[in-house]
Amino acid sequence: MAPIISLQPIAHENFTVRLGDDRDIPEIADIDGEASGVYKRHYWDELLLNTTVDEPRIALVAERDSRLLGFIVGVVRAWEFGSEPCGWVFAVSVRSDARETGVASVLLRALSASFRELGVHKVRTMVRRTDHLIMAFFRSQGMMAGPFLELEKDLDE
Description:
The protein is α+β, with helices and mostly antiparallel strands. The chain is built from four helices and six strands. Strands 1-2-3-4-5-6 form a six-stranded mixed beta sheet. The protein is globular and about 50 Å long.
């Protein structure tokens, strides 16, 4: 992962936030697998190591004593439909034994600062309506429904 921002490590009272690097991918995959129930190392390799995508991607990790506690991955992207470039949170996850310690909040603040450094002024994400934990987290961070509505249709009908 090539750094695209100049984030200096951020010391919190119980952990440090820094830019993620290639060596973090196995632990990122483990944390995601713990949270989702699906271990998908190939997905994380593709997302974080793919250099053919021409959009700024940012991976930040929170660690304590050389152990990752959580991560956040974002990208700056302008979608169609008249959307200005904005920061998108692709994924955020924290180990179950590190939840409710501020890890995700600090990661989101650091990612938001990185987005501002890249010239964007809005952050968005997409969440499943039934994922109450992540929905509650994003709402606690001041995020609310935006101007776009996702529509879908099952193609197997």
